[in-house]
Write a structure and sequence with these properties.
Blueprint (H helix, E strand, L loop, with lengths): L10 E6 L5 E6 L3 H10 L3 E2 L10 E2 L10 E5 L5 H12 L10 E3 L3 E5 L6 H8 L3 H14 L3 E5 L14
Parallel strand pairs: 5-8
Antiparallel strand pairs: 1-2, 3-4, 6-7, 7-8
């Protein structure tokens, strides 16, 4: 969860825990104001009755959220680009235009729309480098959607193609 708020306080103490968790003690802030900000962002905040207990809850089920990653089209070859472009031109003929979408500056792959998306990409003829990137993003970041964008950032550690 990412929460942004501006507070005026007398002092602030931050205690770091493992796995990226922190505890924040803020003096001089009204708890009701903090709860209002959290609730305005679609979450619910309650006071913990025991230290270390989860106090921020998301009202939406986990299955309603999708993980997505945007990266540069430089991670795919020119041939991959041509294949994806051709696939998105197919309309309602039982093709792949329902999970590979053209955005005007790149492509969105809806990986969760196929049972075995990497095998589908192989069947379409996409390069091994492209498929390796997709597999890595799916496994490392649980990506459901990958947006290859012409103005996207290059991801470190992956092959870059100059086309």
């Amino acid at each position: 969860m990412k929460l942004s708020l501006t507070v005026e306080t007398d002092s602030i103490n931050v205690l770091a825990f493992n796995i990226g968790r922190i505890a924040v003690d803020i003096d001089g802030i009204e708890l009701a104001d903090l709860i209002d900000v959290v609730c305005d962002n679609g979450y619910s905040l309650r006071i913990a009755d025991a230290p270390g207990k989860l106090v921020v809850e998301d009202p939406l089920p986990r299955a309603t959220r999708l993980n997505g990653i945007q990266c540069s089209t430089a991670h795919i070859t020119c041939e991959d680009n041509a294949i994806l472009d051709q696939v998105t031109l197919q309309r309602h003929d039982g093709g792949d235009c329902d999970w590979i979408l053209y955005t005007g500056y790149g492509f969105i792959l809806r990986l969760n729309a196929r049972l075995h998306p990497v095998l589908e990409l192989k069947r379409l003829g996409l390069s091994k480098a492209c498929r390796r990137l997709v597999v890595t993003l799916m496994h490392r970041y649980s990506a459901d959607i990958i947006h290859f964008d012409a103005s996207g950032e290059a991801l470190p550690g992956f092959t870059i193609f100059d086309w």
